[in-house]
Automatic annotation (TrEMBL):
GO terms for biological process: monocarboxylic acid metabolic process; poly-hydroxybutyrate biosynthetic process. Belongs to the short-chain dehydrogenases/reductases (SDR) family. Keywords: Oxidoreductase. GO terms for cellular component: cytoplasm. It comes from Marinobacterium marinum. It holds the Pfam family adh_short_C2. Residues 4-187 form the Ketoreductase domain. The keyword Oxidoreductase applies. Its EC number is 1.1.1.36. One of its GO terms (molecular function) is acetoacetyl-CoA reductase activity. This is Acetoacetyl-CoA reductase. SUPFAM superfamilies: NAD(P)-binding Rossmann-fold domains.
Length: 249
């Protein structure tokens, strides 16, 4: 059998890159979905960087907020790999932080569309082939802030909490068909998204993490890869917290 195909949306970003690398190490044919504002050169440069570091990763353009663009992305993956997507990692996401009393509709809508509607667009395209082939892994990246809420993130916390509802419902629908659906909920991890937080605020957050540091992207990649493996067939509908003890429940 040719290698299983793993598509990681937002694959060229902070968490995405680490997830791609761990999946490569585990023997998957990895495709990084990217949007990068349509900057294809940037994605190709990223791909070259990975190659130099010893990681063979394909790249496929797709805007996860747009159904047609997602369909084109999946078609590209099929062309590049000759297989259906075996593992979908719904990782693409954005923040537009701000207190709710000052939040605009655009801030709300952009976050809900990119972080939650994207689950529908991408998963809808891969779930039937997964059911037909009797194997599939859908791994959705949520956040500690879905579980505990966060000042300044009503939009993000709502979208990310919605992701786990989606996971649990879909997991029940496809469990008998060899397809598992799980959520991974990272805490504060060293990525460009977290680096955008004001230094003083981030410092305060970091000090409140029991493990005493921010997470490393590779630590998230590790658990995603574990869930992607054939041997993880009995894990479904679960939410994996990986937050250095920031939130325990
Ligand atoms: N609890 C209560 N009050 C708080 C607070 C908190 N956690 N944080 C700030 N405030 C208060 C301040 O004390 C201040 O009060 P006063 O006006 O009475 O002095 C007020 O809020 C400041 O409000 P402003 O709207 O003026 O502040 P701002 O616009 O400069 O910043 C913010 C608001 C952008 C939301 C900022 O608080 C912030 O960045 N917070 C962190 C948000 C965060 O954690 N984002 C995570 C991004 S990374 C990610 O999302 C990945 C992941 O999954 C973990």
């Amino acid at each position: 059998m040719s290698k299983r195909v793993a598509l990681v949306t937002g694959g060229t970003g902070g968490l995405g890159e680490a997830i791609c690398r761990k999946l490569c190490d585990a023997g998957f044919h990895v495709v990084a979905g990217y949007n990068s504002g349509g900057n294809h050169d940037k994605a190709r440069a990223w791909q070259e960087e990975q190659r130099k570091a010893g990681y063979e990763v394909d790249v496929a353009y797709g805007d996860v907020t747009d159904a047609e663009s997602c369909a084109a992305c999946i078609a590209t993956v099929k062309e590049l790999t000759g297989r259906n997507v075996d593992v979908l990692v719904n990782n693409a996401g954005i923040t537009r932080d701000g207190q709710f009393k000052k939040m605009s509709w655009e801030q709300w809508d952009e976050v809900l569309t990119a972080n939650l509607d994207s689950m529908f667009h991408m998963t809808r395209l891969v779930v039937n082939p997964m059911i037909e082939q009797g194997f599939g892994r859908v791994i959705n990246i949520s956040s500690v802030n879905a579980q505990k809420g966060q000042f300044g993130q009503t939009n993000y916390s709502a979208a990310k909490a919605g992701i786990h509802g989606f996971t649990k419902a879909l997991a029940q629908e496809v469990a008998a068909k060899g397809v598992t659906v799980n959520t991974v909920s990272p805490g504060y991890v060293m990525t460009p998204m977290v680096a955008k937080i004001d230094d003083a605020i981030l410092d305060k957050i970091a000090k409140s993490i029991p493990v005493g540091r921010l997470g490393e992207p590779a630590e998230i990649g590790r658990i995603v890869t574990f869930l992607a493996e054939d041997e993880s067939a009995y894990i479904t509908g679960a939410d994996f917290s990986i937050n250095g003890g920031l939130h325990m429940f």
